[in-house]
Amino acid sequence: MNGANHSVVSEFVLLGLSNSWEIQLILFLFSCIFYVSSMVGNFLIVVTVTFDPHLHSPMYFLLANLSIIDLIFCSIAAPKMIWDLFRKQKVISFGGCIAQIFFSHAVGGSEMVLLIAMAFDRYVAICKPLHYLTIMNQRVCSLILVVAWTIGLIHSLAQLVFVINLPFCGPNVLDSFYCDIPRLIKLACTETYKVELIVTANSGFISLGAFFLLILSYVFILVTVQKHSSRSSSKALSTLAAHIIVVVLFFGPLIFFYVCPSPSTHLDKFLAIFDAVLTPFLNPLIYTLRNTEMKMAIRRVFRKFIGLGKKGLY
Question: Three-state SS for 13?
Answer without folding.
Answer: strand
